[in-house]
Amino acid sequence: MNKLTLEQLMQARYGKSIPLDCEMNETLETIFQHRSIRTYCDKPLPKDTLELLIAAGQSASNSSNLQSWSLVAVEDPERKDRLSKLSGNQEHIRTCPLFLVWLADLSRLEALGKKRELPYDGLNYLELLTVGMIDAALASQNAALAAESIGLSIVYIGGIRNNPEAVAKELNLPPRVFPVFGMCVGYCDPEKSSSIKPRLPQAAIAHREQYNAPRSIEAVEEYVNEMNAFYEKNNMKTNGDWVQHSLYRIRGPESLNGREHMHEWLKKLGFEVK
Ligand SMILES: Cc1cc2nc3c(=O)[nH]c(=O)nc-3n(C[C@H](O)[C@H](O)[C@H](O)COP(=O)(O)O)c2cc1C
Q1: Any ligand 1 atom below 6 A from CB of 38
Q2: pLDDT, tens only, 177-222
Q3: 158 lines ligand 1 (CB under 6 A)
Q4: Which residue out of 140, 142, 156, 236 has the highest number of ligand 1 atoms within 8 Å of its CB and is therefore the one to mutate?
């Protein structure tokens, strides 16, 4: 990957330079160089990659130190194939050498409550499921950055939520464990290049002191042009511009890939979600 200056990386992320009075360092470089990769080569991962990523994940902050997340690491090609089918047939799940399934895990606390004969009714509330999902997300992003810092690439897989019951069966998940998302890990195929994807202008998502809705919506217009250029440059087919594309993804329950049944599914997986 080319060494870029902070200014060049801001240019790539926002389509314009953002003056930052800050020295570049390796951590910032890893963060700002991020792009999702969906084409992997079959080069094996360095020894102990999984342990490194787990340690990075566990080093993230977590709610009340409950550590209410877990992961399942999948390398078996047949299992990856089945998980790919359950996730909208995404080819990169088959081709990546390591597929991580990040879990909101309340089962450990339930088991400990039973063992110590202490109450754990709080687990039945939406709040605790939220805690598990937040913890899994924070851990996974730390692992993603650790992977990228050693030259690996990743892509998150929300498709794992298309059919959580079947995924739970495939991975032998106990009740009160929910697969939040997957993550492909591997070396990017050097033949396939990919670009840093621009983000909304800071004015669209960051507010000072109080939320400013009109300013946020106004700033999106600038982004639409930026993304049109990005789609064109990268030969990406989309449902119109970024706004049309985004609204298409949320047009109704039929756009949620089965996930409109999430509430029922959670109940089946042992979450009361009170
Ligand atoms: C929770 C989550 C779920 C995602 N699910 C998928 C997925 O199922 N398939 C996929 O190809 N990309 C998936 N992505 C990747 C996003 O599309 C990608 O991060 C986004 O377009 C921004 O591009 P970038 O990561 O290259 O900057 C997911 C990302 C996140 C954070």
Answers
A1: yes
A2: 999 999 999 999 999 878 999 999 999 999 999 999 999 999 999 9
A3: yes
A4: 156
Atom of ligand 1 lying closest to residue 88 CA: 8
Q: How confident is the model over 101-154, as pLDDT tens digits?
A: 999 999 999 999 999 999 999 999 999 999 999 999 999 999 999 999 999 999
Beta bridge partners of 186: 153
Region 240-262: mean pLDDT is 95
CATH homologous superfamily for the domain 36-189+257-268: NADH Oxidase (3.40.109.10)
Ligand 1 atom at minimal distance to the Cα of residue 197:
27
**Closest among 8, 129, 26 to 68, alpha carbons compared:** 129
Pull the structure tokens for residue 200. Answer: 């909304």
Domain boundaries, the chain: 1-33, 36-189+257-268
B/e letters for 47-82, b = 16+ CB within 10 Å, e = fewer, are eebbebbbebbeebebbeeebbbbbbebeeeeebeb
Atom of ligand 1 nearest to the CA of 160: 8
pTM reported for the whole predicted model: 0.97
